[in-house]
Write a structure and sequence with these properties.
six-stranded mixed sheet, Alpha-D-Glucose-1,6-Bisphosphate, Chain A, domain 3, TATA-Binding Protein, about 575 residues, 18 helices, eight-stranded antiparallel sheet, alpha/beta
Length: about 575
């Protein structure tokens, strides 16, 4: 079957010369052929994501075409005059895939709005909502290495596509012949005919105005800030610099080696602001200009990482650190400004620090937990919007460096996060403290909550099988204790059952079904395991709590060792 698919592609996949060359180069490589064709690239609520190349298990114009035909069928099923917004980032072939998708939508009678150049993912969410589109697509693989690309699909609310819609798209894809059943047209002709329309600067300015409207400390002395910023060769370069300019941050130095778009990411093989390696160029530049703050946004500019000067060296803060700091800052400033809504709501994912629960309680803010994935945070805003209560939403965040401080989009947004972070740093600088010192204040007040995360890569068919086996074992044979502390609660989001092991009772979990396992120990620590929805990885999230920073950190170290062993790595 695999070889038959390979031969068919050799015959018909002639629309991209790179694919033709690759197919010929692997003719005598059985392993390469098998990996490229043993399955179809999966389409789900996160869309597509995979290695760029030839084959059904790769990102190419044909797999993008098949997904686009499915999405076009969905839009035509819900609207007689449908429209779709399209955006893309700096990754290899992102512009090609975006134009391929746009051409297919146009050929299916759907109006297409596409940005003229690379744009951040949140700006796609904004365009979908502002232009009242039925769907949206952004071509990106977020912070993955250069060999990956992806295709995120969005619904009319600006959230990533829901389960029902994704299932419909997949059902169509399963019926579509990847070469013969995908309708398409010439992109430039469709533009000339008005079937494809470029998104104008007015929409970009409206987006920036919405970000500006979410400031919480407009009186902060941002002019005194010195910032080093890196877009990591991605789409954040223009909008982040523009928003900082608008709020008055005048001293911004951009890392020159990483300023311009480059999908090969030559200076950051892993363009992920969660890791120190992505900051190496910024840290070297900081030695020369001594900034107050280092900012790094990932290629599609929905995540942001930071480093701040403390005791003569730049320290990177985790997503949990920044999320807790921003939550406290937003709640404190809105309370002081008199702009706090009645019955405020903040939303976090289940794997995000519990420090935030105590912070929210201090300000009388309801804190809602959702599954991992920012679409679930976006869904909460949409639920509030349907009740006319969207103003109750004050902040949404996840441990993986994603933050949102407004309701104008339904995805994490590194543009507004960069703005709020600069306001926060400037505000505390005026008080004579940095973010490390402020974080320590929060720990002393609310408790020392430490968080950690480990990801284990398991590529290919064998890797998928290994991940499946780990989850089955942990689900069917849950550990009685972890790191010397008894497991008192075990939540299985796939079966939607929460097991109270201490009292021998069970209750239903009301969140959506998901392949996530959570273990909560008697000493307050936790371990959560789930396969990644976008990468060939299994992820482990760890939490500890202690009376001092040192004790909590030591417990986290021990828990990480025990958890790694439990997963078999």
């Amino acid at each position: 079957m695999v070889n038959e698919k390979y031969e068919l592609w050799c015959k018909k996949a002639t629309g991209d010369s790179d694919l033709v060359k690759e197919l010929e180069s692997i003719r005598d490589n059985e392993d390469a052929i098998s990996d490229a064709f043993y399955k179809d690239l999966e389409f789900g609520t996160g869309g597509l994501r995979g290695v760029i190349g030839a084959g059904t298990n790769r990102m190419n114009i044909y797999t993008v075409g098949k997904a686009s035909q499915g999405l076009a069928a969905y839009v035509n099923s819900v609207s007689d005059n449908g429209s779709i917004a399209v955006a893309y980032d700096s990754r290899i072939k992102s512009d090609l895939f975006a134009k391929t998708a746009a051409s297919i939508f146009a050929a299916n009678g759907i109006k297409v709005y596409i940005y003229k150049e690379l744009m951040p993912t949140p700006m796609l969410s904004f365009a979908v909502r502002r232009l009242k589109c039925d769907a949206g697509v952004v071509v990106t693989a977020s912070h993955n290495p250069a060999k990956y690309n992806g295709y995120k699909a969005y619904g009319p609310d600006g959230c990533q596509l829901g389960l029902e819609a994704a299932d419909y798209v997949l059902s169509i894809m399963n019926k579509v012949d990847i070469f013969d059943d995908v309708k398409t047209t010439d992109f430039e002709k469709a533009v000339a005919d008005g079937k494809i329309e470029y998104i104008g600067n007015d929409i970009i300015e409206e987006y920036l105005d919405c970000v500006m409207a979410c400031r919480v400390a407009p009186g902060a002395d941002v002019e005194s800030l010195k910032v080093v910023y890196t877009p990591l060769h991605g789409s954040g370069n223009k909008p982040v610099r523009k928003i900082l300019e608008k709020i008055g941050v005048k001293n911004v130095t951009v890392v020159p080696e990483q300023e311009l778009p480059d999908g090969n990411f030559p200076t950051a093989p892993y363009p992920n602001p969660e890791i120190r390696q992505a900051f190496e160029c910024a840290l070297k530049l900081a030695e020369k200009c001594s900034p107050d703050l280092l900012l790094a946004t990932d290629p599609d500019c929905d995540r942001v990482g930071i480093a701040v000067l403390d005791d003569g060296e730049y320290k990177l803060l985790t997503g949990n650190d920044v999320g807790a700091l921003l939550l406290d800052f937003v709640l404190a400033r809105r309370t002081a400004n008199g702009t706090m809504p009645e019955n405020p709501i903040a939303v976090k994912t289940i794997v995000t620090t519990e420090l935030c629960r105590s912070i929210a309680k201090e300000y009388g803010c309801e804190l809602i937990d959702v599954l991992t994935g920012f679409k679930f945070i976006g869904e909460q805003i949409t639920l509030l919007e349907k009740k006319g209560e969207e103003k109750r939403f004050v902040f949404g965040f996840e441990e993986s460096y994603g933050y949102l401080g407004g309701t104008y989009v339904r995805d994490k947004d590194a543009v507004i996060a960069s703005m709020l972070i600069c306001e926060m740093v400037a505000f505390y600088k005026a008080e004579g403290k940095n973010l490390i010192e402020k974080l320590d204040e929060l720990y002393k007040k609310h408790g020392y909550f430490m968080c950690g995360q480990r990801s284990f890569t398991c590529e290919g068919e064998s890797g998928m099988n290994r991940i499946r086996g780990i989850m089955e074992t942990l689900r069917n044979e849950p550990p009685a204790e972890i790191n010397g502390s008894a497991v008192v609660k075990f939540d299985d989001y796939e079966t939607s059952v929460s097991h109270d092991l201490k009292n021998g009772t069970e209750k239903k979990i009301t969140l959506p079904v998901s392949n996530v396992l959570c273990y909560y120990m008697e000493d307050g620590s936790s371990l959560i395991v789930r396969p990644s929805g976008t990468e060939p990885k299994i992820k482990m999230y760890l939490g500890s709590v202690g009376k001092t920073y040192e004790k909590a950190e030591k417990e986290l170290e021990n828990l990480t060792v025990k958890g790694t062993k439990l997963l078999g790595f």
